[in-house]
Amino acid sequence: MRWTHVIRGAGTVAATAALLGGAVAAPAVADGARHGQDRLTDLVNPFIGSENEGNTYPGAAVPFGMVQFSPDTGHNTGYDYSQNHIRGFSTVHISGVGCGLGGDLPVLPTTGDITSTDNAVYAAEFSHDDEKAAPGTYQVGLKNGIKAELSATARTGVQRYTFPATDKANVLVNAGQSLHKTVSTKVEILDNRTVRTAITGSGFCQDTKPYTVYTITRFDRPFKVSGTWKGDVVTEGSKSSTAAGERNGAFLRFDTTKDRTVEATTAISYVDAKGAALNLRSEGGRSYDHVAKAAQAAWEDRLDDVKAQGGSETVRRTFYSSLYRSFLAPNLGSDVDGRYTGWDQKIHRAKGFTYYQNWSLWDTYRTQAQLLSLLAPSESRDMAISVIKIDEESGWLPKWGYGTVETNIMTGDPVTPFLTNAYQQGLLKGYEEQAYKALKKNADGVPAADSAPVGREANTEYLANGFAPYIADRAHVKPGDSDYDHGASATLEYALSDAMLGQMAKDLGHKADAARYTERAQNYRTIFDSSTGFFRARDASGAFTGPVDPAQSVGFHEGTSWQYQWLVPQDLPGMVGLIGGTQAANARLDSFFAYDQLVQDPAKTARETWVNGPYAYYNADKYNPQNEPDLIAPYTYLSTGEPWKTTDVVHAALTLFTDAPTGMTGNDDLGTMSAWNVLSSIGIFPVQPGTDTWGLSTPVFERVDLTLDKRYYPNGKLTVKAPGTSDSVRYIQSAKADGRSYAKTYLTTEDIRDTRELTYEVGTEPSTWGTSVNAAPPALK
Predict the structure, then answer these.
(1) Is 173 left (phi over 0), alpha (psi -120 to 50) or beta?
(2) Could you give the CA distance from residue 72 to residue 157 in angstroms, rounded to a whole number?
(3) Per-residue pLDDT reduced to its tens digit, 89-107
(4) CA triplet 714, 718, 721: central angle to 5 degrees?
(5) Which of 89, 103, 146, 299 is the one with CA 20 to 30 A from 711?
């Protein structure tokens, strides 16, 4: 239940909502039991994905919060479970990214004299035996005798340090070292309790335009001695320090011979120092224990919207841990007064919505966007409006946005299915035409050369010839990835986006546009090489280029032709026809998933035949469940008359998710892989991203109760039942929607709004359920 829903225990909710900045709400009680069951937060393990390049973080955050207060160990994205030294607890982290990003203002408690200004040198050793994490809290006992505890509100990080008895208990506030490139920093000691910083950084995989994070840290007690450092030089008594791209920070010294505890609250803002101060004034001033309790309660309230029964303890832990990570991003971008920095680098004020930022759209348009539209529609609406505001204020829609800037990481046109999904889910009321106008501009043009975004970089050639050419040696004129380097996959993604925009145009009455985009949605055919039976890249002259072997193909971003061949959700019947019909398609799917091996040993097939390393994107003819290009592929069987195989493949892939630090399959990518796990475990998956179509497979739980926002889902709930489901009893024999026989292998969002209960009868062998011609998700026309 959300803060915008019916209020439970109004006084408690109001107080907690104020503490957490209005981003989330807490229930009236959070006493360890709900409806006779243990707390769902107890099932969450924030360390999942923190090893083997899952790149998650174990630190403290509230749902969609601006602050993610977490330890950094030396890994380029922050925390790595295999490392045993902490360089600092920094305020900003992004779950599952593949390159260094965030890590602003690492803070670390130490004792003794300050002998180094490099956090790699003064890093504190720790053991996992002395480390704990839960939703909203993190704590660790350092080998130097200091205990550190972290929690968070929406816009602040709260820290409590318990020192040994000493007159040299230090807190190091490091402005000049982050996970990204630090361009410039400023540190100011305002009084004997308060430190302020401004940190300008750049970079995500490549250089980007700079952005600035403003912070203010307020301690609960005065420090006795303080000073700053710049480079290698420490200056006791100094009140300020400014640096350009070098180490820069402040130290604050306390006497803990009698009172061993020091607490502090750090507020951040992407607007200005005033914004950080306002955030601190609004959300600060509470004790660590108070904040930690509120953060846990907020997470309990969020997770409580999905109640799963059945399944093993491991399955339940991985499921709720994935659900937790699905709500970590996008993140608040506006301060408590509604101000935010737009992509025009000017200050704006959000009116009637909350502004969000951090858009890993190439990843999230396939899974997480749809999960949030189902479980967090109010926030999803604000997120979609925020993306529209990016176009309004900067002149173009984003591709991969971080903070206040475009990074241009990844390729294709992911913003179109992201926004058309919001439209199809009913989240853009009042903004339909503005969104459509921005999407049309994006689909029919290319950003100006002097602007930051690349948009559909290869759109000129695509519109003229029907495909984006593969030009590997083309000079990059803007930072980021280039569609020309990945012409084949860019063509497929442009065509997918055209299909989704065509549906929106049709619904809005733009008939000529609808016909044009729908025709362009067939451009996937332009890169189909009938001599090989696979998609291939074309060069600027139109000739097929690169290796003939589709497992060695070039021009596909983080994948091969084998993996991208199923990325035609707008017209799977057409794709099936290209490769020789249903029988040929099923044979190819069976080869792709190593299906004969899979049914004998699903877990072994997933781990030894499919998976070849977290970044093994190329030179493979098998399914890669660790990355985005073929996330939808298992659901292709719904369109080829063998829906039971979707369940076989999905359940095999789910074995890759465990409750260990290595239990994430690939980078989490701002909740993308976690959302895949959640949706596939429930058995409802967005098979046509950008529309309102949800494919069905057997859930792994006997019962899942979803609490839905009644403003978007009038029934306020959806229950999915599969009594007796298990590893061996997993095949759908029949299905019923509210007691009526249901033969289709998909639902629409309108079906979800009209349905209270979806029930499956399951058995040990495949059945004819879902095999009729009309059972499959329809092609878009």
Answers:
(1) beta
(2) 15
(3) 999 999 999 999 999 999 9
(4) 160
(5) 299
Which helix or strand (DSSP H or E) is residue 263 part of?
strand 261-269
In three-state secondary structure terms, 179 is coil
Q: Provide the pairing of β-strand 233-236 with 225-230.
A: antiparallel
Residue 24 has pLDDT above 50, yes or no: no
Q: In which element (H, E) is residue 424 found?
A: helix 415-424
The tokens for 194 are: 């308060």
SS3 (DSSP) at 682: helix
Mean pLDDT of 207-219: 95
Q: What is the pLDDT of residues 632-644, one digit of tens each?
A: 999 999 999 999 9
> Quick check: 316 and 308 in contact, CB under 8 A?
yes
- What secondary structure letter does DSSP report for 138? E
**Exposed, middle or buried by CB within 10 Å (0-12, 13-18, 19+), for 453?**
buried
CB 422 within 8 A of CB 380: yes
Closest CA to 73 of 108, 98, 113, 116: 108
| pLDDT digits 0-9 by tens, 502-543 | 999 999 999 999 999 999 999 999 999 999 999 999 999 999
Q: Could you tell me if 499 and 570 are in contact, meaning their C-beta atoms sit under 8 angstroms apart?
A: yes
Among 339, 305, 309, which Cα is nearest to 324's?
A: 305
Round to whole Å and give the CA distance between 232 and 566: 55
Residue type for position 249 = G
Q: Tokens for 324?
A: 């937790």
Residue 202, CB half-sphere, CA atoms under 13 Å: how many? 11
**Domains defined along the chain, listed by start:** 10-303 (2.70.98.10), 306-696 (1.20.1610.10)
